[in-house]
Amino acid sequence: MGEYEVRKVLAADNNLSLRECEKMIPSEDYCLGILDENREIISFAVKEDLTRILKFGLDNYPINLIATLTDNADINVDNIDKSELKRYLGPGLNKGIFVGKDKKNIKYLILNKSFAINTDEQYLKEEFEKNIPLKLRKALKYCYTAADKISLPVYLVGGIVRDIIISAKSNNIVSFNNHFFDVDITVEENAVEFSKFLQKEYPEICIIKEIHEEFKTSKVIFLIDGENIELDIASTRKESYLKPASLPTVEEIGCNIYDDLVRRDFTINSMALSLNQNSFCKLIDPLNGYNDIVNEKIRILHPLSFVDDPTRIIRAIKFSTRFNYCVEKATKRLLETCIDSCLFNNLAGERIKSEVKQTFNLNKTECFNMFIAEKAYNLIDININIPENITDISKKCWDFIQKYYKSLISKDFIWLIYLGILLTGFENEKIVEVSNRLYFSGMETEILLGAKSLIKRLNLLKAAETRFEIYELLEGYLTESVLIVLTCTDDPVIEEKINLFQTELKNISIYTTGKTLIEAGLIPGPVFGEIFRELLQSKVDGKISSKEDEEDYVKNFINNKFLN
């Protein structure tokens, strides 16, 4: 059948191990049909995937870790209509369809032979010109003009392609800010050499900012109409994973664009736009990412995707809530199975932090709730206990962030408020252990420890009777720490006092300085601290308010202290 093949299905229980299942398949003419609790065959596993995952040493993990959900179709395998198959089969993860009238009577699986089969031609010139700002288009034109001079295939790839398609679909122009948005270009060669060529071709407007020899990537800056336009330039590459959750190993630099796209995370991120003039704005979409945008689906590329890189679990949640897309059912099942396997409990590394940060900084309750529902918190720490009313807590967190947004140390710390809610049950030592494992900064750790410290002082805060007592108990804590505690408490008295501090007391300060006191004739010493505290207390309690009030206080203090 050319691009398709038929495999005989051998039924296997879903509690069998990967090693047991691998032994069941006599050859690549067979595959496994995985039974559910109703003894229906609902998913499949092929020998190639079993062979690859067993290289990771995961012999005793369940077959469901890579079993792919699929449907069944009543097809005559002796006389298959290829045009009919296109209704059922897609590239990548959705490459298989069971043959049978129902799930209890499955004998065959029809598979795509190739990983990527979409060859339809589509051009997005209008979307490109409408959604890419003029200055960025000018910078890109310099790149593809230079690339055409040396017959080098050059592409716009990744998120920028996804976003201009989403923008065109929703009729909203994408807002690209080069200080916050990465513009990725890929060449089918050595990107470092191409960057040097760009700098040589355009010495007055192009400079190389960074070079990373290991992956043959670089950053270049074009000066366009007085503005710096930064571009990331990468070499196309093939990658493999030596073990789960490891950084990928580069196998080949300068491969064709298709091999580069199929190493990525989700179909919607696995597209490219040709920038060469003979194929300008042709969409390269081997995995039907365009259709998944149209159908609002998040879909991984192959059954081992989450095993290779479990940060994709958090990324799936991020993209699902960011775009309001559904996680496609086979992808969702593999995501849940991967988490339930406990293979990635208590992960370490800066990439986990980065994905959690990006996800929670979206500041969406749906995002946090999905993170909890999918048990993605196990990737951070298996001992996190989730309160029964976590949905209510999530809503409170969002409300308080909105209410006190202007008081935040940085909007870049919003993620720590959500994460802090999950870590308040830990003691300081455990919080520090998690922080170290995920490479938190000193300030990030301080926010989490500050919340824990304040929780232990809530009884004192509740008993505080004066404004100054409230001030002294809360002063010194970062707003993010305070919001973690505020979200986690149901006590209206505590909430009222924290609100008083945040809205009225927090920014109270005195005009008087050490210089003021010296000019008034006082000698520096402990008395300065006494005066400052009493001034502040009087101001917080509303007894004084102006600079003149403070001057009068200092005069009276001197008179009472030294002249009586």
Task: Set out the fold topology.
Layout: E1 4-13, H1 18-24, E2 30-35, E3 41-46, H2 47-54, E4 68-69, E5 72-73, H3 82-85, E6 96-99, E7 108-112, H4 125-131, H5 134-149, E8 154-157, H6 159-170, E9 184-187, H7 191-201, E10 206-212, E11 217-224, E12 227-235, E13 237-240, E14 249-253, H8 257-261, E15 272-274, E16 283-284, H9 289-294, E17 297-298, H10 305-308, H11 311-323, E18 326-327, H12 329-340, H13 350-360, H14 365-373, H15 390-403, H16 414-423, H17 428-437, H18 442-455, H19 458-463, H20 467-474, H21 479-488, H22 492-505, H23 514-519, H24 526-540, H25 547-563
Parallel strand pairs: 1-2, 5-6, 9-12, 17-18
Antiparallel strand pairs: 1-7, 2-3, 3-4, 6-7, 8-9, 8-15, 10-11, 11-12, 13-14, 15-16
Explain this structure.
The protein has 564 residues and is α+β, with helices and mostly antiparallel strands. 44% of the residues lie in helices and 15% in strands. It contains 25 helices and 18 strands. A seven-stranded mixed sheet has the order 4-3-2-1-7-6-5. Strand 11 and strand 12 form a beta hairpin. Helix 15 runs antiparallel to helix 21 (479-488) and helix 20 (467-474) packs across helix 22 (492-505). Residues 176-180 have low confidence and may be disordered.
